[in-house]
Specification:
The protein is of the alpha+beta class. It has 14 helices and 22 strands. The strands form six sheets. It has a six-stranded mixed sheet with strand order 3-2-1-4-6-5, sandwiched between helices. A five-stranded antiparallel sheet has the order 7-8-11-10-9. Strand 9 and strand 10 form a beta hairpin. The relative contact order is 0.07. The mean pLDDT is 89.
């Protein structure tokens, strides 16, 4: 494939610029290598005449002796282009996920921490990078979402990530950089074949391309097809989830279990995505699906990093992991704002009401009885069961005690579940 001329690369950047809201800054992830140095150089060509704010950000991973050289190269380039540069140093913890994965996670965390919400980050990944990512995903046994590899555009943590050159072969970038007499740093680790991506880049893909010269383009196209299929599946899954949802907190586990196993997997993964939860690894997902028909009183809890699933009374709940509650009990005058380990409460005792005895706020312990208006003395445990409050939520309720009498039950931060006869709770007027 013939290298694309400079005006084609600039056109792709102008297309990406047109998608950026006026007044928002364009950031370029600048490593100091060829790809990102060329991206920043041509970004200046299209952004500065248009009066669009342009900034660069460099992440120093501190993993090699050349890190200081890369940082200095980025500073030199930004000074020449008159582009403001932000440099962020990160600590990379490679335990459990390898150096490449840990560095990537640390890099993106630094991006999201430094770039204001609403701004756009341009990344220099190209067609060859996409082909490598597709092969890595295939070798891991990924499904459609993994095989979709890197999207052209993605919104994450308020920042829009765009890869303007994702369909551009790296040969085109190399030719453009040479035509501009651009200088850049070569990463000394790029030849380390112990790293998976380097082995694909230097050993596997060249061997494939001796037989199929446009292999990188074909693999990148397969990634686009996988992405399209994944988006279509998500659309169907989101529509089907609406028939299974109860409120926003749970879905009908019995109805879910009546679907085929592939459909169950898709629906659970889509629900995780909707709730910004990590998707379960394959074995955990299968274990969860096996528990969908558990007995109504079973305490099913399946956990994976960043999320957990619970099945109770034929409902499936997906949530962030619940932290153990610390011991907590405080005296309260009923009027001052009340802070709990789960956040401030949005309720107080009405100012018109006098309190014959001081109040005590604590976690629900069990055995509480409350005198309800027109309902008499009721056991709190039975009330919560009748209201179908899940067991793990019952443990996190705040009860307001007056001597030995329970006069209020609140689900933090602001849901008043019960108040005793004669007690009058009102909402706080200020935000909690």
């Amino acid at each position: 494939m013939a290298p694309q001329p400079l005006n084609t690369l600039e056109r792709l950047l102008n297309d990406a610029l047109a998608e950026t809201p006026p007044g928002r800054s364009i950031w370029v992830a600048l490593s100091g290598g060829l790809d990102s140095s060329l991206l920043l150089t041509l970004a200046a060509v299209v952004c500065q005449p248009a009066g669009r704010p342009l900034r660069a950000i460099h992440i120093n991973h501190g993993l090699q002796a050349a890190a200081a050289t890369f940082e200095e190269q980025c500073k030199t380039l930004c000074e020449r282009l008159n582009v403001p540069l932000s440099v962020k140093s990160v600590a990379v913890d490679a335990q459990g996920e390898g150096v490449e994965g840990a560095a990537r996670n640390a890099r993106y965390a630094a991006f999201f921490a430094a770039i204001p919400a609403g701004d756009t980050l341009w990344l220099a990944q190209h067609q060859d990078d996409q082909a490598e990512t597709f092969l890595l995903a295939a070798l891991r046994g990924s499904g459609a979402r993994g095989l979709a590899s890197m999207p052209y555009r993605r919104d994450a943590e308020g920042v829009t990530l765009v890869r303007p050159w994702l369909t551009t072969p790296r040969a085109s970038l190399e030719a453009a950089a040479q035509s501009l007499d651009l200088t850049w740093c070569e990463d000394p680790t790029n030849t380390d074949l112990s790293l998976d991506r380097n082995r694909l880049r230097h050993a596997v893909l060249p061997a494939i391309e001796t037989r199929w010269p446009d292999a990188a383009g074909a693999l990148a196209q397969s990634a686009r097809h996988a992405g399209e299929a994944d988006r279509l599946l998500v659309e169907y899954a989101e529509q089907e989830l609406q028939t299974l949802l109860s409120g926003t907190s749970s879905i009908d586990a019995a109805a879910l279990s009546s679907r085929s196993r592939p459909r169950q997997r898709l629906l659970v993964r889509t629900l995780c995505q909707q709730q910004s939860l990590s998707t379960p690894p394959q074995k955990r997902l299968e274990s969860l699906l096996d528990q969908l028909k558990a007995k109504p009183d079973a305490a099913v809890c399946i956990e994976w990093p960043g999320a957990q699933a619970r099945v109770w009374r034929q409902r499936l709940y997906l949530m962030t992991p619940l932290e153990p509650l610390p011991p907590w009990q405080v005296d309260w005058n009923g009027h001052a704002p009340l802070d709990t380990p789960l956040g401030p409460l949005g309720w107080k005792i009405a100012s018109s009401q006098t309190l014959p005895q001081p109040l005590r706020a604590t976690w629900r312990q069990g055995g509480e009885v409350i005198q309800l208006p027109n309902r008499g003395r009721r056991d709190l445990k039975r009330l919560l069961q009748e209201a179908k409050v899940p067991p793990w939520e019952r443990e996190r309720l705040v009860v307001i005690m007056q001597a030995d009498a329970c006069i209020g039950v609140i689900r933090p931060p602001a849901q008043l579940l019960y108040q005793a006869e004669g007690a009058l709770f009102t909402r706080l007027t200020s935000p909690v």
